[in-house]
Write a structure and sequence with these properties.
Layout lengths: L6 E7 L2 E10 L4 H10 L5 E12 L1 H16 L3 E5 L3 H9 L7 E3 L2 H12 L5
Parallel strand pairs: 2-3, 3-4, 4-5
Antiparallel strand pairs: 1-2
Length: 122
């Protein structure tokens, strides 16, 4: 099966930069992830949305680690959503889940962000 081309789209939602990712996260995703990080502007929270990601290899995991490191360096919180059960397990085994909140979907992640920004008030 040929690799699925990696693409990103960044949008601001509930005060966080949501990075919609499509395709496979492998060595070809490096420039796309770097561009998405820059496109997030000065958002203090970046949500990586894995809804349309089909495959992540070990190089892709390393790219996500680099994304996390860049966020930590710049005092930005990196979150993730919509990981498949398989990749949720991979994130737990590699301890990536120790360094980012993982949500079931973008809606629940943005609801939490909205709640945090309003101090829990609706």
């Amino acid at each position: 099966m040929p690799a699925s081309r990696f693409e990103t789209e960044v949008r601001l939602e509930a005060g966080i930069a949501v990075v919609l990712m499509r395709g496979d996260i492998d060595r070809e995703a490096e420039s796309g992830l770097a561009a998405a990080y820059l496109a997030a502007g000065d958002a203090s929270v970046i949500l990586l949305d894995f809804t349309a990601v089909g495959y992540i290899n070990s190089t892709g995991i390393a790219l996500i680690v680099r994304f996390l490191a860049d966020g930590r360096r710049d005092r930005r919180e990196i979150r993730a959503c919509a990981l498949s059960p398989h990749y949720t397990e991979i994130f737990e085994l590699t301890r990536l889940s120790d360094y980012m909140h993982i949500f079931d979907d973008a809606a629940s992640a943005t609801a939490v962000a909205t709640s945090e920004m309003t101090g829990g008030r609706s």
